[in-house]
Design brief:
The structure is a single chain. The protein is 46% helix and 17% strand. Mean pLDDT is 89; it is low at 390-394. β3 and β4 (80-91) form a beta hairpin. The protein has helices at 4-14, 33-39, 43-46, 51-54, 60-66, 107-131, 146-159, 175-184, 203-211, 229-232, 248-260, 286-291, 297-303, 319-335, 344-352, 358-372, 385-388, 395-419, 424-431, 435-444; strands at 18-23, 28-31, 70-77, 80-91, 94-104, 165-168, 193-197, 212-213, 226-227, 237-241, 262-263, 272-273, 277-282, 306-309, 341-342, 377-378. The chain is an alpha/beta fold. It has 4 domains: 4-108, PAS domain (Beta-Lactamase), CATH 3.30.450.20; 138-309, Rossmann fold (3-Layer(aba) Sandwich), CATH 3.40.50; 314-393, Helicase, Ruva Protein, domain 3, CATH 1.10.8.60; 405-444, Arc Repressor Mutant, subunit A (Orthogonal Bundle). The structure holds adenosine-5'-diphosphate and magnesium ion. Residues 175-176, 241 line the site of magnesium ion. Adenosine-5'-diphosphate binds at residues 141-143, 169, 171-177, 359-360, 363.
C-alpha cells in the first residue's frame, strides 16, 4: 500500500518553495528543507515554537485568526524581500492550521520572470503592430489628374489633424489606399491602423468584434474575454470600411462611443477610455440611406466632418496610361517575364472602356493580359473580350453622348441645390421633379445635399 502521508511529506520537503505549517495556535509543526535553508536554522529548533519567534515579519498567526488568505505579498526575511503566500487551512468552517510559503526568495527571481514575460509581450506587441500597420503612403497613390492631385493635397492637409474623415467613391477607386496614407501621414503614424470591414462581419458578432467582451459575457465567450477593434486601435486609427453596412443598432452604440470617447465591452461593468481617430469609407449613398431610415443621420454628421470623394477612373482617364504602365511593370516582374509594352491602339481602347471596377479592375486586366499575351507588345486583341466588348467600335460615340447628357444633368442639379442651399424639397420643386426622382439622381451622380 502506498503511504500517501510519506509521499506528500517528501514532495513538500523536496519542493523549492519554503513551506511552514503552524497549528491553530500559531505553533510551528512543520518546516521543509527549503525553509531551513532560507532561515538558516534546523527544523528541530523551529518546531514547537510560536511562528513569530521563528520567522521575521510573519503574518501567519494573523491569517489563522482572520481566516483570510494572503497571496503574493512581499515579506522581509533575513533582510531580503521575498514573495510569500499565507493560507488558512479550514475544516468545518474552523481554522485548524496555517501554511506559509516562500514562492520567490528574492525580487530578482520575480524580476527575472517579469523580464521574460515582458520580452514575450513586447514581441507580440511588435507582431501585432505589423498586423495593424498601414501599408501605403501618399506617394503610392499614383495620379496625374488635376482633380485627384487636389484631393491628395486636401487629404494630406487633414491627415495632420485629428478630424474624422469620410471617404466616398465607387468600389476599387482607392478608398482604402487613402485611409492608409492618411494614417501614415498623421501624428498617430506610430500607433496601430486597424481596419474593420463592416460588410464582412455577421450581424450577431458585430458588437463583440467592435467593442470586445468580458470573460463569461455569453456562453461561447472565451474565458479571458476579447479586446474589440476600437480598443485595439487606441493610440492609432480605426478604418471603418463599408460603413453603410453597419447594422442600425450598432450605429447608435458606435455614435455614443465616438462622442464619449469611451467604449463598453459586452458584459462589461465600467466604460474604458479610448483615444482613436476615425476614418470611414463607403461606396453607398448615405444620404439616400438616411432618407430610407437605413443609416442614422446623427452618425452621418459625426463621421462626415471631412469628406473626400474619390472620382471613378472613367472621370480621370489621363490616369489610365500611368496605372497601366505601373501594373505592367509589376506584373512582368512578378512573372519574371521581360518588360512588355502596349500598342497605342491598345491603350486607346483601354482608355475608352468605362471601368466599373475602377483601378482594381484595371489591375486585374493588366495582369491577365501579361499572363496570356504571347508577344511582348500588347495588341488590342490581347484585351480580354468582356472589356473590348462587341460594340467597342461604337462605344466612344455612344459613351460621349451619354457623358454629355450626364454632365449637363449634373450641372443643373448642382446649381439648383446651391440655389436652395441644399433643401431637397425646394430643389425638387425648382426642377419640377418629384423627390424620389431627385434622390435617384443625387445618388447617381454622387452629389451630397449638405453644401
Ligand atoms: N491611385 C492609385 N495608385 C495606385 N494604385 C491604386 C490607386 N488607387 C487604387 N489603387 C490600387 O487599386 C486597388 C483597389 O484600391 P482600394 O483602396 O482597395 O479601393 P477601394 O477601397 O475604394 O475599393 C488596390 O490594390 C490599390 O492599391
Ligand atoms: Mg475597399
Amino acid at each position: 500500500m502506498l503511504d500517501l502521508g510519506t509521499v506528500l511529506e517528501t514532495v513538500i520537503d523536496s519542493a523549492v518553495e519554503g513551506t511552514v505549517v503552524v497549528d491553530a495556535n500559531g505553533i510551528v509543526v512543520f518546516l521543509n528543507k527549503a525553509y531551513e535553508d532560507i532561515l538558516d536554522i534546523k527544523r528541530e529548533d523551529a518546531i514547537g515554537k510560536h511562528v513569530t519567534e521563528v520567522i521575521d515579519f510573519t503574518r501567519l498567526h494573523v491569517v489563522i485568526r482572520t481566516g483570510i488568505p494572503e497571496i503574493g505579498e512581499i515579506q522581509q526575511i533575513k533582510g531580503r524581500n521575498m514573495i510569500v503566500q499565507r493560507l488558512p487551512i479550514l475544516k468545518n468552517d474552523r481554522v485548524i492550521a496555517g501554511v506559509g510559503k516562500v514562492i520567490f526568495r528574492n525580487e530578482e527571481e520575480v524580476q527575472d520572470i517579469i523580464h521574460k514575460l515582458e520580452t514575450k509581450v513586447k514581441y507580440y506587441e511588435s507582431e501585432l503592430k505589423n498586423l495593424f500597420e498601414a501599408k501605403y503612403r501618399f506617394n503610392d497613390i499614383l495620379t496625374c489628374s488635376p482633380k485627384m492631385t487636389e484631393l491628395k493635397k486636401l487629404a494630406e492637409k487633414v491627415a495632420c489633424t485629428n478630424a474624422t474623415i469620410l471617404i466616398r467613391g465607387e468600389s476599387g477607386v482607392g478608398k482604402e489606399l487613402f485611409a492608409h496614407a492618411i494614417h501614415k501621414a498623421s501624428p498617430r503614424a506610430s500607433g496601430p491602423f486597424v481596419r474593420l470591414n463592416c460588410a464582412a462581419i455577421p450581424e450577431n458578432l458585430f458588437e463583440a468584434e467592435l467593442f470586445g467582451y468580458e470573460g463569461g459575457a455569453f456562453t461561447d465567450a472565451k474565458k479571458s474575454g476579447k479586446i474589440g477593434k476600437f480598443e485595439l486601435a487606441s493610440g492609432g486609427t480605426i478604418f471603418l470600411d463599408e460603413i453603410g453596412d453597419m447594422p442600425l443598432a450598432l450605429q447608435a452604440k458606435t455614435l455614443r462611443s465616438l462622442q464619449e470617447k469611451e467604449i463598453e465591452r459586452v458584459g462589461g461593468i465600467r466604460p474604458r477610455k479610448i483615444d482613436i481617430r476615425i476614418i470611414a469609407a463607403t461606396n453607398q449613398n448615405l444620404e439616400d440611406m438616411i432618407a430610407r431610415n437605413k443609416f442614422r443621420e446623427d452618425l452621418y454628421f459625426r463621421l462626415n466632418v471631412v469628406s473626400l470623394a474619390i472620382p471613378p477612373l472613367r472621370e480621370r482617364k489621363e490616369d489610365i496610361p500611368l496605372l497601366v504602365g505601373r501594373y505592367l511593370e509589376k506584373s512582368c516582374r512578378d512573372y519574371g517575364s521581360p518588360l512588355k509594352t502596349v500598342q497605342p491602339e491598345t491603350m486607346a481602347q483601354l482608355q475608352s472602356y468605362h471601368w466599373p471596377g475602377n483601378i482594381r479592375e484595371l489591375q486585374n486586366t493588366v495582369e491577365k493580359m501579361v499572363n496570356l499575351a504571347e508577344d511582348n507588345v500588347l495588341k488590342p486583341a490581347d484585351i480580354p473580350k468582356n472589356i473590348r466588348g462587341e460594340h467597342a467600335a461604337f462605344e466612344p460615340f455612344e459613351q460621349k453622348l451619354k457623358n454629355r447628357t450626364a454632365d449637363t444633368e449634373k450641372e443643373l442639379l448642382s446649381s439648383a441645390l446651391s440655389a436652395t442651399k441644399g433643401n431637397k424639397k425646394k430643389t425638387a420643386l425648382l426642377l419640377g421633379i418629384n423627390r424620389s426622382t431627385l434622390y435617384d439622381k443625387l445618388k447617381k451622380y454622387g452629389l451630397r445635399y449638405h453644401h
